[in-house]
Design a protein that fits this description.
This protein is mostly beta strands and about 475 residues long. The protein has four domains: about 40-135, Immunoglobulin-like (Sandwich), CATH 2.60.40; about 140-240, Immunoglobulin-like (Sandwich), CATH 2.60.40.1120; about 270-365, Immunoglobulin-like; about 365-460, Carboxypeptidase-like, regulatory domain (Immunoglobulin-like). About 5% of the residues lie in helices and about 40% in strands. The protein has three helices and 34 strands. It has helices at about 10-20, 70-75, 170-175, and strands at about 40-45, 60-65, 65-70, 75-80, 85-90, 95-100, 110, 115-120, 130-135, 140-150, 160-165, 180-185, 190-195, 200-205, 220, 225-230, 235-240, 270, 280-285, 290-295, 300, 305, 310-315, 320-325, 330-335, 340-345, 355-360, 365-375, 380-390, 390-395, 400-410, 410-420, 440-450, 455-460. Strands 11, 12, 14, 15 and 16 form a five-stranded antiparallel sheet that branches. β29 and β30 (about 390-395) form a beta hairpin.
Length: about 475
């Protein structure tokens, strides 16, 4: 006969349930304590941190709780750099480093984990954790600190690395990897620790192309001269892209994301019906490059009766026809695009007349700007930039200390100042291999500008000082 044996505790619980009779039982889960907000803490290192005369191949770091490694490639820096990368792994409370490369004699090595180490339960980050050892009798102790700013915007990109090279030839940044690397923080600041005595070339570099400068689309910055480790002077780097990074729209201007079938002989373009800006040209955007156009087959009519003169031209991309005219505020316009008014590079032409209707904005749709500036420094050629969604939408020189602008489009604008070294009115990048020319510098203004329609917007603005190199 099978017997069922109940513990005293379980029997008591069953008894209570039977005595209480039928009904709903309220099950209350046990209440936990306060949420863990502390990052993992190192409790043991084997060998100990800052070990000298190191000769081992394995390092074990034990923490007070279970840990995980996240985005190790982006966070971990090892200096000096290895040719063969070490193997890093985490299991339970232990982080293990297995050194695969040979170690140099009398050299201090540092593993900086950035934000890679986190606890498993609450994902609390152990920020800036590092482990150091030396293969010689003492640790190198010199430091080098500084800041990296994006020259074109005056902001910070935390993906940028700062690199030190023993090889002082300019070509070294293309031909070989750096000796030491470190990340910047959210303010663009960086610091190298445990450096040996020596002179270094210093670069800021986007973490691409095996940490070498191989493309003009990479963020890159350089110092005007070499730097000595242990220097008390902060190193300033201004990173720039010599050529704009390629962008992918995913669809053509006409909204197509797939190739046009060969049997479809229609000319594809976009002629907008949005309100026409009084100070801007009307633009017709084509899917393919325009091979030819006939302005006599384009007509512009105002308020249903008045023929309006215009000039028609093709922009540098050959995909945009620019229609320039003098717009009458508040008037309605009809644009007639007759058959065969344009032919694209595939031989497609307009098959029949297209009619596009739009209206010009009213003057009441705009605001008037009257800006006065303080701290305008002679010889700096300041240019005020109006920024929306990260793009400069308007700019103007302000050396006179004032800026007046009629018919300014209402909206919220961030403001920056370009210190226009060559006076051409636009930001110019640096050129490292062509005379080591530094980029022009931009600084953000610590305020936003809201332009209101049908009003005079009179504001006083204090300009920031030019960045100190």
């Amino acid at each position: 006969m099978k017997k069922i044996v109940l513990s005293a505790g379980l029997a008591g619980l069953l008894g209570v349930a039977l005595l209480s009779g039928p009904g709903c039982a309220n099950i209350v889960p046990p209440q936990g304590g306060p949420r863990d907000s502390l990052p993992p803490r190192l409790v043991k290192a084997s060998p100990p941190d800052s070990t000298v005369n190191f000769q081992g191949r394995n390092i074990e770091l034990t923490f007070n709780e279970y840990i995980d490694l996240q985005e190790t490639r982006a966070n971990l820096t090892v200096s000096p750099m290895y040719d063969i990368q070490p193997e890093i792994s985490a299991k339970l409370r232990t982080l293990t480093i297995k050194i695969k490369d040979s170690l140099e004699a009398n050299t201090t090595y540092t593993f900086n984990f950035g934000n890679a180490i986190r606890d498993i339960t609450e994902n609390n980050v152990l920020r800036g954790f590092s482990y150091t050892f030396s293969t010689g009798p003492a640790l190198d102790s010199l430091r080098l600190a500084g800041n990296v700013t994006l020259a074109e915007t005056g902001t910070v990109d935390t993906t940028v690395l700062v690199e030190l090279y023993r090889n002082l030839d300019d070509s070294a940044v293309q031909k070989q990897g750096p000796r030491y690397i470190t990340h910047v923080d959210a303010q663009g600041n960086f610091e190298f620790r445990n450096l040996p005595a020596g002179t270094f070339a210093v670069y800021a570099l986007e973490d691409k192309n095996n940490r070498r400068y191989l493309a003009k689309t990479q963020l890159f910055g350089f110092t005007d001269s070499t730097v000595t480790s242990g220097s008390k002077n902060a190193v300033r780097l201004f990173a720039y892209r010599e050529a704009a990074a390629a962008t992918t729209t995913g669809a053509s201007p006409a909204g197509r994301s797939t190739p046009q079938p060969a049997t479809d002989r229609r000319l594809k373009y976009v002629a907008t019906t949005a309100p026409q800006e009084l100070r801007s040209d009307y633009r017709i955007v084509f899917e393919n490059k325009v091979k030819a156009f006939d302005s006599s087959k384009v007509r512009l009519i105002r308020d249903s009766s008045t023929t309006v003169p215009f000039a028609l031209s093709l922009d540098s991309t050959s995909k945009v026809l620019v229609l320039r005219s003098s717009w009458e505020p508040g008037s309605n316009y009809t644009l007639f695009l007759d058959k065969d008014f344009a032919t694209d590079s595939t031989g497609r032409s307009q098959l029949r007349t297209d009619t596009v209707r739009f209206a010009a904005r009213r003057t009441a749709d705009y605001g008037r700007l009257l800006l006065r500036f303080r701290n305008v420094q002679a010889g700096t050629n300041p240019v005020l930039q109006f920024v929306q969604s990260g793009a400069v939408v308007f700019s103007a020189p302000i050396s006179s200390g004032t800026l007046t602008r009629e018919l300014f489009l209402p909206g919220d604008y961030e403001l920056r100042v370009l210190f226009d070294r060559n006076g051409n009115g636009q930001w110019d990048p640096g050129k490292f291999f062509e005379g080591r020319r530094q980029p022009e510098l931009v600084r953000p203004i610590d305020r936003k500008l809201t332009v209101k329609p049908d009003m005079e917007n009179e504001i006083e603005i204090a300009l920031p000082d030019p960045p100190v190199k």
